[in-house]
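The material for today's practical consists of a large collection of protein records. An example says more than a description, so a record of this kind follows:
***
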Amino acid sequence: MGAVMVVSKKNEEHIWKRRTSKEQWVNWFFWLLGISIVLFAWNMISEKTIWFFVQDAPRQAADIGTRMVPPKWSYMSQLVKPVWDTINIATLGTIIAMIIAIPVAFCAARNTTPHIIIRVLALFIIVSSRSVNSLIWALMLVFILGPGVLAGTVAIGLRSIGFCAKLIYESIEEIDENQVEAVKATGASNLQQMVFGILPQVLPTIAGVGIYRWDINIRESTILGLVGAGGIGLQLNGSINTLAWTQVSTILIVILLTVFVSEWVSAKIRGAII
């Protein structure tokens, strides 16, 4: 916001101010509103917090930390299959999400949707998918499909549809229309315009979004076992419930290494694509 000049009528002095009086009052009002919201939220948290446990938290954390050292390295041999399940959950879930997200994105984009009603339905799918966390999807699917890898895979897929479709349809809306017009000038049909005029422009985005989401899904799939949806989270939950803290530290190290490797792989693939 630029500065404004206020003229004093008493001695005709020109005083430069950043805001007018009205803008200043509006600014103070929003600051007061924001502080009030923060104080109200803090008051709600304080009323529902047992401060005795908070005060005792450092001692409890130190006690658990000492019990987690040294990690039980021999337990790593039992984590190979759970880690493989976690990677499969993330990979298959991402593939399912991309298969659904691409047509949903084309239906949601203003310049490719066949009808406004279809666009509204596509946007509803995107919002619904992004509004529910993967852990909640997994919790519901465990009751529907039973515990195991299938529930985790479907949960990751349902959660990822909205994320992928949103980024892709925004990319579709930002394409260069001149390329589409050039294809249209050759007498191409609507499908040919989409295949030869639009799809080549958004293919890098589709590939990049898929790899990026796979990287996120690796991390999310590590905790789905907490609700019985398979993967290494199942071993983590079991070890915590049995107070096997040396196993917990081993599992956390394996999760950290898995996420680190997935970050490195996704970065290399995105670098090759871009």
